[in-house]
Amino acid sequence: MLAITVQTESGPALARPSADELAALLRRIGDDDDHFAVVERIPGADQVFLQTWREGTGPFAVEHRDGGPERHFRAESADAGAVAEVFLAWARGTESWRTALDWRPADLYSTPDLDAQTRAQAEERARTDIRTDIRTGFWAAEEVAQGVCDAFDPDETPVTVEQARRIVAQLWQEQLAEQAQWPAETDPDRVARAFGALASQGLTALLNFTCCSSCALSELAGERADGDRGFAFFHYQDTAAAADGHGLSIRYGAYPDSGADSAAIGRAVTEALTDVGLPVVWDGDPRKVIEVTPLRWHKRLPSGR
C-alpha cells in the first residue's frame, strides 16, 4: 500500500491505495466528472502535493508543489503510463519523478487567451460571490472555478475551467496565507469533532449536506446507517452564512420510525457541541434550529487544485 491519499472529482478520497489501484485511477482521468486527481503523502504537509488534470483524451497537465507558489511546477505528457510512473515514484519517495517530465515553473495566474473585459468580469464575480465558497473550506479549487464559469453564458462569453482556475488561484493563495496564522484547532474542527461524536451515538451527522433543508430532508434516508435514530446536519447555505460571520445553524430531528424524540436529539446535539467547547444557543424547543454563535469559521482549504 502507498502512504498517500488520492482525491478525485468523482468520489471521496482514497487512502493508501495499491500501486495498481493508483495506476488504474490515473488512466481513467479525463472522463466526464472525473478530470483531476490530487495526491498527498501520509502524513500530509501543507502545500505539498502532486496533481494532474486531463480533458477527454488530451494530454495530462501534471503539477507538483513543495511549499508556496514559487515552488509550484508544471509539465505535460500524453503518455498515461509515464504519468502513472511519476505518481508512483513520488508516492514511494524515490527521486526518479523529478527528471521524468520536463518540469517548468508554473504560471498560475495569467489568462492570455481571455480578453481583458471578460477577465475583469470574472475576477469581480470571483471576489464577490465566489469568495464565500472559498471561505467555507469545503469546495476544491476546481469546483470553485466551475462556479466562475457558470456565471457566463458559454455561447456568448465562454470562460473555460482552466481560465477560471487561474482567476481563482490568487484568491486561493490569499486564503492559504490567511489560514497559516490560524490556531492548530479552529471552530470548524470542533464542529467536525462534535459531528463525529454524534455519528457514534446513532445519529446521521452530515457536514455541509446539500443545498437547502428541503433537499437535505429528502435525501437523508440515503445517508442513514442501520440503527440511526435521528439526524443532525447543516447545508450549503448554513455554511456560507457561517463563513460570512453569522454563526452556524444546526438542523436535527428524529426519524419517525425510530421511536426517538426530536427534543432528545436536540439535547444530544447541544451536548456534543458544548463538549468540544462551542457556544450554543437553543431554548429546548424542537421546532427551532440550534445556533452555534459566536463562531469564527476558519476551515482550512482542501489541498491541491
Q: Which structural category fits the helices and strands?
A: alpha+beta
Radius of gyration, in angstroms, nearest whole number? 21 Å
Characterize the biggest β-sheet: 7 strands, antiparallel
> Distance between termini?
24 Å
The proportion of residues forming helix, as a percent range, comes to: 25-40%
| Unreliable residue stretches | none
The number of domains: 3
The strands making up the biggest β-sheet line up spatially as: 2-1-3-4-5-6-7
User: Proportion of β residues?
Assistant: 15-25%
Give the topology string: H per helix, E per strand: EEHEEEEHHEHHHHEHEHEHEE
Give the overall form.
Answer: globular
Number of strands: 12
Count of DSSP H/I helices: 10
Mean pLDDT: 92
Describe this structure in words.
It is a single chain. This protein is an alpha+beta fold and about 300 residues long. It has helices at about 20-30, 80-90, 95-100, 115-135, 140-150, 160-180, 185-200, 215-220, 235-245, 260-275, and strands at about 5-10, 10-15, 35-40, 50-55, 60-65, 70-75, 105, 205, 230-235, 250-255, 280, 290. The strands form two sheets. Strands 2-1-3-4-5-6-7 form a seven-stranded antiparallel sheet, with helices on one face. Helix 8 links the parallel strand 8 (about 205) and strand 9. The radius of gyration is 21 Å and the shape is globular.
Could you write a compact summary of the structure shown?
The protein is of the alpha+beta class and 305 residues long. It has ten helices and twelve strands. It has helices spanning 19-28, 80-92, 97-100, 116-136, 141-150, 161-179, 187-200, 213-219, 236-243, 262-275; strands at residues 4-8, 11-15, 36-41, 48-53, 60-66, 72-77, 104-105, 203-206, 230-233, 248-254, 280-281, 290-292.
